[in-house]
Design goal:
- The chain is an alpha/beta fold.
- It folds into two domains: about 1-105 and about 260-373, Isopropylmalate Dehydrogenase, CATH 3.40.718; about 120-260, Isopropylmalate Dehydrogenase, CATH 3.40.718.
- The protein is built from twelve helices and twelve strands.
- It has helices spanning about 15-30, 45-50, 55-65, 90-100, 120-125, 165-180, 195-210, 225-230, 245-260, 295-310, 315-330, 345-365, and strands at about 5-10, 35-40, 70-75, 105-110, 130-135, 145-150, 155-160, 185-190, 215-220, 240, 265-270, 275-280.
- A ten-stranded mixed beta sheet has the order 2-1-3-12-11-4-5-10-8-9, with helices on both faces. Strands 6-7 form a two-stranded antiparallel ribbon.
- α8 runs parallel beside α9.
- The chain is globular and about 65 Å long.
- The two termini are about 15 Å apart.
- Bound molecules: nicotinamide-adenine-dinucleotide.
- The site of nicotinamide-adenine-dinucleotide (NAD) has 21 residues, from α4.
Length: about 375
């Protein structure tokens, strides 16, 4: 059955990197039997310019009916002085919460050819393949009550509420166990159960959920130790599951361990497996319009879409292998070029990946139209 993908290029380099993703989707339609219809929509600053809001109703309606969403990036200096409620980033946050995208998947993967780009020693990151599963719609970022008030004694105080319901923990734990079950079968749940009651409950529910996944080895780690272990020996982890705020911080640390922000994709999923896929980088206003942005994070976001929303793991693998192969051939955009390598443009990198995908699909027909659930 034909699936619908809503593409939201957004602002800055967003349209440049999403253009490469649409080339890839065209190629997968022609060569891998992928049956998709691609629609375009406005979000962020470009939506504000046309509709006076960063998330116009037609975009939200199209996002609700699409099977998956591919987003570039939003924001930029042009919109920084706008009131908070209509800033480009609000469009993105509203989209995530309107669609109930509670599970944020952030892989941190080191490509052999780029191991020297990491801030850690090569041997610590070579072969790193870690997945952080972050709860995205609950916890302290959303808990009520919150605010700034005048407390006893007339002094102002800021306060937030860290609250997790059992059902919220159970659904994110299930996503993490399912992913671990398909990967290295190791799940580390990160909490602060020694001082926070809400994460004591988190731990209890994760342990309870683990009974349905006997093949996955579950461990627990306090967040301060997890931060340390991520930079000490990141390869000890397979899948990490954690709360919204801890995941926010740990996933950025893990991203930097891999060395380049232009390489990392992400997925945000709802309870039915529908997802929004996006590179983790922003709109990079400093290089927008120059045709030099690295499109690989966006192309790898398409691979995540194939794997998690369309259950086409083999085709996803062809995209990931193609990225590996162009890097091994020495192709680099400016952000990952080192040692005098002549950088290629955004579209040259996109074309090279598409060509490599075509070659891989021709060589291994089993990578086409994988319908395993
Ligand atoms: P950024 O990720 O846009 O840029 C940080 C640095 O990384 C810049 O030097 C940029 O040139 C570089 N960079 C980022 N992506 C790259 C790529 N694909 N190829 C090559 N280089 C790349 O972060 P920022 O500068 O803090 O934010 C810029 C704008 O993006 C802000 O308005 C911010 O709010 C927004 N933002 C949006 C998202 C999103 O849409 N998901 C995420 C983060 C920031």
């Amino acid at each position: 059955m034909t699936k619908t993908i809503l593409c939201l290029p957004g602002d800055g380099i967003g349209p440049e990197v999403v253009a490469e993703a649409t080339k890839l989707l065209d190629c997968l339609q022609q060569d891998a039997g992928l049956e998709v219809e691609v629609e375009l929509g406005l979000v962020g600053g470009s939506a504000y310019d046309q509709h006076g809001t960063p998330l116009p109703d037609p975009t939200l309606d199209a996002a609700r009916s699409a099977d998956a969403i591919l987003l570039g990036a939003v924001g930029g200096p042009k919109w920084e002085a706008l009131p908070y409620a209509v800033r480009p980033e609000r469009g993105l946050l509203a989209l995530r919460s309107e669609l109930g995208l509670f599970a944020n998947l952030r892989p941190a993967l080191t490509y052999h050819a780029l191991a020297d780009a990491s801030s850690l020693k090569r041997e610590l990151v070579t072969g790193l393949d870690l997945m952080i599963v972050r709860e995205l719609t609950g916890g302290i970022y959303f808990g009520q009550p919150r605010g700034v008030r005048v407390g006893d004694g007339g002094e102002k105080e800021g306060f937030n509420t860290l609250v997790y319901r059992e059902s919220e923990v159970r659904r994110i734990a299930r996503v993490a166990f399912e992913i671990a079950d398909q990967r290295g079968k190791k799940l580390c749940s990160v909490d602060k159960a020694n001082v926070l009651e809400s994460t004591e409950l988190w731990r209890e529910v994760v342990i309870e959920t683990s009974r349905q996944f006997p093949a996955v080895a579950l461990t627990h780690m306090y967040v301060d130790n997890a931060a340390m272990q991520l930079v000490r020996q990141p390869k000890q982890f397979d899948v990490i599951v954690t709360t919204n705020m801890f995941g926010d911080i740990l996933s950025d640390a893990a991203a930097m361990v891999t060395g380049s922000i232009g390489m990392l994709p992400s997925a945000s999923l709802d309870a039915g497996g529908k997802g929004m896929y996006e590179p983790i980088h922003g709109s990079a206003p400093d290089i927008a319009g120059q045709g030099v942005a690295n499109p690989l994070a966006t192309l790898l976001s398409v691979a995540m879409m194939l794997r998690y929303s369309f259950a086409q793991a083999a085709t996803a693998g062809s995209v990931e292998q193609a990225v590996d192969s162009v890097l091994n051939d020495g192709l680099r955009t400016a952000d990952i070029a080192a040692g005098g390598a002549v950088p290629v443009s955004t579209s040259e990198m996109g074309d090279a990946v598409v060509q490599a995908v075509r070659r891989l699909l021709a060589e291994s027909p089993s990578m086409r139209q994988d319908t395993r659930g």
